[in-house]
Amino acid sequence: MNNSYYYFSTHTTRPQVYHQLVASSEYQKLDEETQDLLGKFVGEFPKRNKEFSTVDYCAKFNVKHRYELYELNNLKTFTPNHFLYNFLSYSNQWDASTRSFGKNSKERAEEITEKEIINEMTNPNSNIKKLLEASGRNLSAVKPFLPAIMISLKTNTRDSDRMIFKHTGRFCFDFDKFKDKNEATKWMNKVWKGTKNVKPYMAFISPRGKGFKMFCQVDTSNSDFQRDFGSEDKKVVSKHHKVWYEGARKELENKFPELKERIDLATNDCQRLTYIPFINNKSTDFKYKASKVSTYFEIVENERKLKREELQKKISKRQVEVDKVMKDQNIASPEEAYNLLLKKESYNFNLELETEKFIKVVDFIEEQIHKDSRIEEWVSTEFNNYDSLQKMSWVLFGVFGDLAIEQIKRLIPADSNKLDEDHNDYRWSIRSMDDYETSLLKSLTPAPFYARVRKLPIVNDFISENFGVNSKNLSDFKIINDYYETYIRNKNLDNGKENLSEFLDDITRYLDKDRSRLPLIEKFDNIAPEISLGPNEYLDKDVMHKLFQNKYYDKKIFFLRSQCGKLSAVSRWES
């Protein structure tokens, strides 16, 4: 087992952290009026004149309120200005561990062994103990400045652009909301015994003493673990992390139902940091046995079984629709058919057409590779990069399944290790529907793939010419809209008696012809005219009056084709 962690700590590199905590301790000794004034000092800082430095701001505030801040002159540890600067730093938590190593921070954590972590937590001469003493043993004050470790990921940064999603096989459970330390310790000892599959290897009382942390580890050499976490893709790792976590949590809750409301669910995030406190009494507040390992497959399989049962219930409620999708799309899996049904409802997804488009675009790119060395070089770069393939395959597999992986392989250089099943970089292609949340599957589209390949002008033109919106599509939209507007007008004039099915039949017939790629004009050329008017009659007021008032007095909306062939919908009330 890997017994090292990354240590997200500022106190080892920034000694001023101790000064900030001392300032927070001194603040507690000041009278109420001085504390109120210091609250104003902190509150006005964001609104200060930005031309002045922080040091200048502190000095100016001290000069302005010299007599009111007389107590600061009696401090043994700081000058007044020095105190104000450190108190301002403390109040804004400028050097707090989680803030300094924030999600947009470029700082890197240092690696530390498990033995060193335990020593930091339990040694009375450790730096953590010094932090506690600097704050006057104020646990609430010191907590944000405590060091932290990331249990589940082997990464030394929280910067989203640099984070590595390599899972350590470790999980953390956070139990809190106990009335005091004695109650927290009692329950820590009970949970430490574990369950059938959950075997904690480390536990300790949390910084404030009203909760405890419980660490579990699984065997990372287990084939099931390696299959699930092999890709190191953020979404995949997060998904499988939560599956094990939720399965283990349920097992803990079943054995200890009294703790159901005391587990902090935020610890299901594999990116979460855990504060490392000072353990005052190692014999009662700390548990450790490195050899204890929790099972992986059993917990995961039990949790997935529950998920499958929940999915089957959803499918059974829509069985008729699912069966139709299976038949229409020649899909053998009810689960895949259900996901496709959700996708269709989400944005009218047409699997047949999207699959045809995807394959034809890949065909075209493959053809161009053999014709143009520049295209070959671009494709070789784009489709021989592990991160790019990983992100692309994640999306496309969620849309097309195994077909996506096979099509992507066609664009990877023949000598690439990304095609070598025995090479570690082949992980990009190892995908499973277990990697996805059902709610996510219905929203995935192949758009990221097209956004990438459209960077090639010739491919962009091919997609636009063959699959983009063109004048023919716009004509289709206009005609359908005309049908709808005609229906709505008649409906309003007939006080809601207009036949909806007739309108839907018109649209259906039109779309059926459009799918057959018949010319749009055929729709109108096949309409037999009731009358024909010559150029003079068309402009004759009396002729038109007779048509409106006599022959068609009861028709509210009708179509006229002008001499130039343009068809228009006309209302008798407009004429």
Outline the structure in words.
With 575 residues, the protein is of the alpha+beta class. The chain has four domains: 4-148, no CATH class; 151-298, 2-Layer Sandwich (Alpha-Beta Plaits); 351-467, no CATH class; 471-571, no CATH class. The chain has helices at residues 16-27, 32-44, 54-64, 80-91, 97-100, 114-122, 127-134, 139-142, 181-192, 223-229, 234-255, 282-285, 297-317, 319-329, 334-347, 351-369, 373-382, 386-400, 402-409, 438-441, 447-453, 457-467, 471-493, 500-515, 522-525, 535-538, 541-551; strands at 4-8, 110-113, 148-150, 170-175, 202-205, 212-217, 273-275, 286-288, 557-561, 567-571. β5 (202-205) and β6 (212-217) form a beta hairpin. α1 crosses α4 and α11 packs across α13 (297-317). The termini are far apart. Pfam families: BT4734-like_N. It comes from Tenacibaculum todarodis. InterPro entries: BT4734-like_N. Keywords: Coiled coil.
